[in-house]
Amino acid sequence: MQKKIKLKKNPPRQKVNYDKQMLEIVEDFKDMEEQPKMFIHSCCAPCSSAVIKKIAPYFQLTVFYYNPNIDGESEYDKRAKCQQRLIEIYNEEKVSRNPIKIFELGHSKEDFTDISDRLGEYEEGGLRCMRCFHLRLKRTLDLATEMGFDYYCTTLTVSPHKNARIINQIGSYLANDKVKWLPNDFKKRNGYLDSVNLSKKLGLYRQCYCGCKHSRLESEEYRAAKALENSTQFVAK
Ligand code: SF4
After folding, report:
1. Centroid of ligand 1 to alpha carbon of 99 (angstroms)
2. Which run of H or E residues covers position 234?
């Protein structure tokens, strides 16, 4: 008689605390005479406002503003200028031991054309976003490697709309033997709330959609539906 094979159940997906992992890595960096060099990708000034404050005590920071996903030149310029202004404010306030540097490649929107054309119909948070994260992280890592940085990461996980597990998986998968990925979940320990409050306090331009044409259209549709719902409720009262 054939022996019955007992199938093993898949182990439940373990929740990783990326914020705790980060704190364990950086704990000794604060008092180092020469702190490790960090190349941090920034999606926008409002998100980076809280993230920079969080990691500034541990690293020599260079903020990399690379966002070819942003729809339209004027929107790109507005966001890039705001990022520049934030770094100037933080350097005046001396939020880190060494002045924070900023590196910008320009809009480079053609880098995003293929993703936008082929994956436009995916909802926010789906495949289009994964490819968008990959594009920005890969470029960040390549430059960090070329310029001799020790670590790289991104501000993206501060947003409650972004999946920290996916971002960390892409970041650690890409990392090489020269540049390490810093695990992170910047929304933890009030990160998102801090970014909202800091943006208000510093008068930073806060956009109402993520960046690409598709996210802009989704946001416009959502706001139009909300306005219609509110006006219908008003008439019904
Ligand atoms: S919604 Fe945001 S993360 Fe997703 S593809 Fe558009 S710009 Fe990139």
Report:
1. 30
2. helix 213-236
